[in-house]
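Q: I'm building a small set of examples for a reading group on sequence design. Run inverse folding on the following structure and report the sequence directly after it, with nothing in between.
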């Protein structure tokens, strides 16, 4: 049986607090994915369609996911850093928009080798 992890828990600990660093009324967040290097000098990225369909299509977050993540992060971090209101907003918007998030994705060509420290996917998340 495959372990299913909700979107709310699919981040490293430091990302749980990122929302606290945004200026008030932030409505667009730009982010990117890159390899920081390591054992290999190049990266071959593929699988974007799977990632988008698996993590961003349909009801991607539920109230149950939010409750679970809030408990996990409170227990792990010792404080309430979890952005419960932000995740509730995603639930509300995806219900209003028939399970669609407003995400714009740009990337290098699929299955192309690139050097490390180059953004291979960028995304804008709009609210």
């Amino acid at each position: 049986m495959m372990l299913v992890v909700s979107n709310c828990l699919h981040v490293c600990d430091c990302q749980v607090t990122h929302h606290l660093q945004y200026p008030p009324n932030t409505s667009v967040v730009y982010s990117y994915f890159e390899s920081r290097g390591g054992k290999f000098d190049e990266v071959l990225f593929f699988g974007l369609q799977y990632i988008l369909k698996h993590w961003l299509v349909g009801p991607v977050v539920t109230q149950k996911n939010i409750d679970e993540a809030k408990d996990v992060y409170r227990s792990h971090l010792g404080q309430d850093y979890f952005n419960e209101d932000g995740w509730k907003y995603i639930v509300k918007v995806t219900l209003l928009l028939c399970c669609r998030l407003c995400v714009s994705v740009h990337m290098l060509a699929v299955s192309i080798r690139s050097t490390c420290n180059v953004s291979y996917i960028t995304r804008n998340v709009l609210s």
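Residues 61-98 form one domain.
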